[in-house]
Amino acid sequence: AHDALRAQWQLLAEDERLAYFKLITGSFRVGVSRLQVTQALAAIGGLDPKRVAQRIMGYTAIGRQPTAADYLALIAPEHGDELAPHTGGQPYPFFLAHALTTPVETFDASLGAPAAWQVEWKWDGIRAQLVKRAGQVWLWSRGEELVTDRFPELARLGEALPDGTVIDGEVVVWQPAGDGACARARPFAELQKRIGRKTLGPKLLRDLPVVLLGYDLLEQSGRDLRAEPQHVRRTQLDALVAELNHPQLVPSAVLQADSWEAFAQLREQARARGVEGLMLKAREAHYGVGRTRDVGTWWKWKLDPFSVDAVLIYAQRGHGRRASLYTDYTFAVWDTPPEAAERKLVPFAKAYSGLTDAEIRRVDAVIRKTTTETFGPVRSVTPTLVFELGFEGIGRSPRHKSGIAVRFPRMLRWREDKPIDQADTLQTLEDLLPR
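Above: the chain's sequence. Below: its structure in token form.
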């Protein structure tokens, strides 16, 4: 076998050897971003990357493996039909926001006056496009999953829309106004109950009603509106919402303030309102593709994440270029305060992002030295390492041993200064739960 491999190696060109050995070892995956894939396909086909991004929407969401013909269609020369009004249920590539992390004191210099921006709440739901064409309705998530059947009330909303309409918005579980309380979005954990069910019974639909919080109009009467300024698209959306007057279509409120400091005060109310922060959209911006800045900018001005200090207790190998290193970790907190006689570590989150390559190599070395047992791909380690974990949301979960689930956990820093007995407790997590 060794001789055969050596002989084959000698026959291959230098640029073929990597692919050859990845194929025979069954590890062909190499991590690349969606943007890199889009740019590479555009370069191969001599196309505008925005055209490839449009074509690739829904490419793997068609219930079958893409074929060679599908691939060739991705990189084929542009044809006249693509310049005509859109047909079928294909959504537009989502325009994504950049994170805004600079101090508010710099906003006047970097962003200009607030009057140049459309400011909204950053909702904590599922980003989606509702498409109505030729009498049919499609609801697409940002992850390019067709989710129409998961939200039948939004399918009915789509049926009420005029043909040739595409709305960009957020799917949330909605609490209507009543008993002196304002209408508001309910926690994301309640939306997850809708997502995770195979069947949607009448009680679930009644207890967890969803709406589409509309914040952009991308197509109207079959005409692509993305090149229109943000404020024009918003005016047209508001007119459509008013004309339709449908309970499942709620406009995302445009917030008003005279200064960035006043908007900062509004942002501090976000967590109490069940939202993640503020969205800033340039009033003159077009609707771009992905996280671009060539036609305008959206900024997400989020609250600082929740954070706790947690202990690393399990580790698993990563993927792609990290396949040889232990990079995926399970973290735990103590079940009782430091003064308790017997304390146990209770797992509550997994995370794999946030460390530098140098830190990953150091942690990997510690994991290999402190492994106590292995089960499948996972190593159990002697607890010695403490990390500050950040996360965007927290809720109760009977499916987890800790009784708590967190959203988007990642490592903020390695707490080399902190011994494990000073890590946080379950009570710390309990105190962060929404009231």
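The first strand starts at residue 98 and ends at 99.
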